[in-house]
Amino acid sequence: MEFDLSLHGNCILSAEDNEVNQMVLQHTLDEQPLPYVIVGDGKQAYEAWKALDPKIILMDISMPVMNGMEAIGLIRQDEQATGKHVPIIALTAHALKGDEERFIAAGADSYMSKPLNPSALIDAISRALNPPTTSVLIS
Fold this sequence. Notes:
alpha/beta
């Protein structure tokens, strides 16, 4: 798979296998200032992450070829060698008790359940890209 390398370091990567969900993501991400790339499985997501070094990843959990949990694991394993950390928001239609803990333990920074609320997704992306800064008071 080839990627537009001009997007390197300056894009949103989304991994989603369902065409309807891809259209929802496309419509939502069209309103963002960052360009985006949508891929259809976890293997493509891992390859796109290596090629594009995106600012954030939206990772569906249930996908063919390689699921989102496996892709997150590979990304986090590779990041250990570089010290870098890309924010990953896990996306799932399976909003069951314990899922959030399971996704966070696998390396996701946060998660959202489907169907996606576009404004909530935009807010989650903004929070992930602009984390609050901590102030230290020295007296």
